[in-house]
Amino acid sequence: MAFIIGLPANEIVLPILLMGYLATGSLTEVSDMFALKQIFVDQGWTWLTALNMMLFSLLHYPCGTTLINIWKETKSPKWTFLAFAIPTAIAIGVTFIVAQVVRALGWV
Questions:
Q1: Nearest alpha-carbon partner for 91 in 14, 3, 2
Q2: Are 17 and 2 in contact (CB under 8 A)?
Q3: Is residue 30 within 8 Å of 17, Cβ to Cβ?
Q4: Is-contact 50 108, C-beta < 8 A?
Q5: Is pLDDT above 90 for 25?
Q6: Distance of alpha carbon 5 from alpha carbon 98, whole angstroms
Q7: For residues 14-28, average pLDDT
Q8: Residues 33-58, buried b or exposed e (16+ Cβ, 10 A)?
Q9: φ, ψ of residue 41 in degrees (nearest 5)
Q10: DSSP 8-state class, residue 25
């Protein structure tokens, strides 16, 4: 859900996750990396969850302003959709494969 809400700007995905996990209703500053880790561990995250989150963040669709610029420059809904769909499909595929390989190897 954080990725969908974070479409306008990809850099707000992590703050949205934290806001949801902490149920604060506003952005909250986390004091250090250990506190951040504890929040995610308390929510059931494993190292595989964190790895796949990072991979998906690197590979998924561009931010909303980039998609708007693609539409403005190409005037094509098809190219705008492909700019969204191709990286997202790659991100889903990569994270799925990583999860399956790690589980098959018994590392989780």
A1: 3
A2: yes
A3: no
A4: no
A5: no
A6: 25
A7: 86
A8: eeeeeebbeeeebeeeeeebbebbee
A9: -65, -40
A10: S
The identity of residue 51, as a single letter, is L
User: Looking at residue 28, what is its pLDDT?
Assistant: 77
Q: Is 88 exposed, middle or buried (0-12, 13-18, 19+ CB in 10 A)?
A: middle
Phi, psi (deg, nearest 5) at residue 104: -65, -35
Residue 45 pLDDT exceeds 80? yes
Q: DSSP assignment, residue 10?
A: G
pLDDT tens digits, residue range 74-83? 999 999 999 9
Q: pTM value?
A: 0.88
Q: Tell me the per-residue pLDDT of 49-73, one tens digit each, with 9 for 90 and over.
A: 999 999 999 999 999 999 999 999 9
Side-chain half-sphere exposure of 75, counting CA atoms within 13 A: 0
What DSSP assignment string belongs to 61-72?
PPPHHHHHHHHH
Contact residues for 59 (Cβ-Cβ < 8 A; gap 6+): 87, 90, 91, 94
